[in-house]
Design brief:
single chain, 634 residues, Rossmann fold, 4 domains, six-stranded mixed β-sheet, 20 strands
């Protein structure tokens, strides 16, 4: 018998049914990934399976004695106590016993009171009789792997850390069926790798929602697709699902077109003159009525998002240079002697454990912080926009429209005015949803709104801090395409391995004790190149200073006094050339300029060509001198 059996289940919250006759089963040992667009009802379906919601119609059969644990997206308001208490709450009847043991151990550590030894011995004897040590071991392992301090007070944690605690609570419960809603949110790469191994070794059945395509590929044995109120089952891997789903949707388009053509023909027939109506076939009339009913009940495929990024003028070729930068916070070394050069068009991934200093590195690169030692030089004409994973730029009490338009009904996108409703429609917000307060939006909808807000601003530098959290697969694919086509520079902090692999050209990794290293390529390339037993240790150096490898060899020499003076003047010269180049671009883009004499237009174009050559030559010279200064070979 299946653990869960849903038969013709329906559910509605007003308007179109959220679930329209869902039938599905979950067998013991299966690992199912639930996919579907944001707003389709994936989290609601999990609540229904967990027994937290009642269906309007149909039946839900559960195996007798079934135990279910669920990680939800939202954090409950009522949870209090320490992190240990909240996590141990997942083990049910053993909770009180383990809580007593943890309390005694904590008090002994604080006071050193020998009188507590007898109390501890008594508690441990009870634990042995109740076979509670295995549960204690699970709690300790999960707390360690998810880097949680059991003695911290749960209410004092950030929203992201609270979700991590709730994930731990779900994992220690050892249920028959485990329901996980975006389990990798707020986890770093090491924790995600451990979670994968944990889930692969878990005996329970698993139903999970995720934006992490690598997790999906490694874990799922079957994919459940929720689309327009119905579910379909897709055995096989994720790539097979994508291909077959596209085929089904294409067939649906063809079928609907034929259906609509026939309906139109029948509507023409029924509207013929009086004579035709007198002789009409009653069976054909009934068939038309049935066609009308089917057409009315049809739920169309939702349109695809149409994101676009508003481009600013081009930045200088040089975006940022960091030379031997140190930075500490409260005596903790965050960055130790790090150097890098960022050029226009680079797409840089930044990876490392949570709390290691990735956001600090971004702020240094943008000039928002100054280094303790070393030098940071920023390029010219930089226009950055910043996506923060906390979505602090959104006001939860204002509507979607007000968050974007700030009282206006229109917005300028790439030089033309658009109505906000139309622009938000490109990001899959219906008019009703666009007038709703942000606080009722799902996590994925909030991310889409923040992307809409940021992409409406002219930019040539995108700073994205965990932009993929809660986004559906289709929106992720579109965001990838946009970033690949983006002509500006991208800084990307992400734990989404597939996203890093597909987007970035190099990766800066935090490798402990403030040491940072830059590698060519994405996450998989880092895995191969990183030092240690898991990687080869053969690092491909990012080709910036004269595109040289960092090996020693012939041609190595230091800068002369004259060359040092020349190098010091080159950044100012580059900035002057780029400023003149930008002014000429703006002049040639102005239609009124072409009303001038033809000779003036020709001179401007000739000067622009000269500037291109001068900039290329100056940059080449700068790179050669920089290489010598850093001790790299010519």
């Amino acid at each position: 018998m299946a653990l869960i059996d849903l038969q013709e289940v329906s559910l509605s919250f007003g308007g179109a049914p959220l679930f329209d006759g869902i039938t599905m089963q979950i067998e013991a040992g299966e690992r199912l990934c639930l996919v579907g667009r944001n707003g389709e009802g994936k989290s609601t379906l999990m609540k229904l399976i967990a027994g937290e919601l009642e269906a309007d119609g149909g039946q839900v059969f559960r195996q007798q004695g079934l135990t279910v644990a669920r990680l939800r997206q939202e954090v409950p308001d009522h949870l209090t106590g320490s992190v240990y208490d909240v996590v141990a709450g997942g083990i049910g009847e053993l909770l009180g016993l383990l809580a007593r043991h943890h309390s005694v151990v904590s008090r002994m550590a604080e006071s050193g009171n020998d009188a507590l030894v007898e109390e501890l011995a008594a508690v441990e004897e009870e634990m042995a009789h109740a076979d509670a040590w295995q549960a204690q071991q699970r709690i300790d392992t999960v707390l360690s792997r998810l880097e949680l301090d059991g003695d911290q007070e749960f209410p004092s944690l950030s929203g992201g850390m609270k979700r991590r605690v709730l994930l731990a609570r779900a994992l220690v419960s050892d249920p028959d069926l485990l329901l996980l809603d975006e389990p990798t949110n707020h986890l770093d790469l090491a924790a995600i790798s451990w979670l994968e191994e944990f889930l692969l070794s878990c005996r329970c059945a698993l139903l999970f929602v995720t934006h992490d395509r690598e997790l999906l590929r490694k874990i799922a044995t079957r994919i459940i697709d929720l689309d327009r109120g119905r579910v379909t089952s897709w055995p096989g891997n994720y790539e097979t699902y994508l291909r077959r789903k596209d085929e089904v949707l294409a067939e649906e388009v063809v079928h609907n077109a034929k259906f609509d053509k026939k309906l139109a023909q029948e509507e023409v027939w029924i509207r013929k003159g009086v004579k035709a109506r007198r002789t009409r076939n009653e069976g054909r009339v009934r068939e038309l009525q049935e066609l009308r009913r089917h057409r009315q009940e049809r739920r169309e495929q939702l349109g695809k998002a149409k994101m676009d990024i508003t481009a600013a003028g081009i930045s200088g070729k040089l975006v940022a240079v960091m030379k031997k930068v140190d930075f500490s916070f409260e005596e903790q070394k965050i960055i130790d002697n790090f150097s890098t050069t960022v050029l226009r068009g680079d797409k840089i991934g930044i990876i490392g454990p949570n709390g290691v200093g990735k956001t600090t590195l971004l702020r240094l690169m943008l000039g928002e912080l100054g280094p303790d030692r070393g030098e940071i030089r920023l390029g010219s004409n930089l226009q950055p926009v910043y996506f923060d994973q906390q979505r602090a730029q959104l006001d939860p009490d204002r509507t979607v429209i007000d968050n974007l338009g700030d009282g206006s009904d229109t917005i300028e996108i790439n030089g033309r005015q658009r109505h906000l409703i139309g622009y938000l429609g490109d990001f899959l917000f219906t008019p009703d949803r666009a007038r709703s307060p942000v606080r009722i939006l799902s996590g994925g909808e909030r991310n889409r709104l923040l992307l809409a807000k940021l992409f409406s601003r002219p930019s040539n530098v995108l700073v994205l801090d965990e932009p993929t959290n809660d986004l559906d697969m289709e929106t992720l694919d579109l965001l990838e395409e946009l970033l690949l086509e983006y002509k500006g520079t991208v800084f990307l902090v992400s734990h989404d391995r597939a996203f890093l692999n597909d987007v970035v050209t190099s990766t800066i990794a935090f490798e402990g004790d403030g040491k940072l290293q830059e590698y060519v390529g994405g996450y998989d390339d880092w895995l191969v190149q990183r030092p240690g037993p898991a990687g080869s240790g053969k690092r491909v150096v990012k080709e910036t200073a004269g595109e040289r490898n960092q090996s020693s060899g012939p041609g190595l020499r230091k800068l002369s006094f004259k060359e040092k003076a020349e190098l010091g003047k080159l950044p100012e010269k580059i900035e002057e050339l780029e400023t003149e180049q930008r002014e000429l671009y703006e002049k040639l883009a102005d239609h009124s300029f072409y009303q001038s004499e033809g000779a003036e237009v020709a001179r401007a174009r000739t000067r622009l060509e000269e500037l291109e050559i001068a900039l290329a030559t100056t940059y080449s010279r700068w790179e050669v001198l920089e290489a010598r200064k850093e001790g790299l070979p010519d």
